[in-house]
Amino acid sequence: MPHTVRIDLSAKVEQWSKNTAVVFSDGITGSFLINSRTKREVREWLKVRYPNRKPAFYLYLLFALLIYLLVRPHLEEIEYIIIDKDYPGEESEKEIKSWLLHFLHRENPALRGSFISFQEVRGSGADRLARSIFEKGEAERRIALSEIQAVWGKKK
Fold this sequence. Notes:
about 160 residues; alpha/beta; Nucleotidyltransferase, domain 5; 5-stranded mixed β-sheet
């Protein structure tokens, strides 16, 4: 049965000194934790790959990567993705969606932009799950730099 999932973060990506839980919920659930050190390592690695970009570029790219890593194992079960409006505004949402679709097309080239939307998810199961994981520091798994590097197919 296809699911509409809501995606939320426990702490914004750019809160570089805080761990971030990335979760989805509503019918099915998934979660992982990326620690603050790994977030900073990824940011530095991205800066080497894409030098001289605005700080928001790295932020939106990392956010899209985290969502991709979260939903990739469950794509066959997901009909629609709703991402919390942590980064509101047409430009930021467009960039996040573009990067996310770029990665998702590796798994399913038929996916279209209508597969993804941005809405407030406060009070949803995803919001509650993100808060719980952040407080306890326990998720289904933890993300490492190597896992993010593997999305590009090689380590640097």
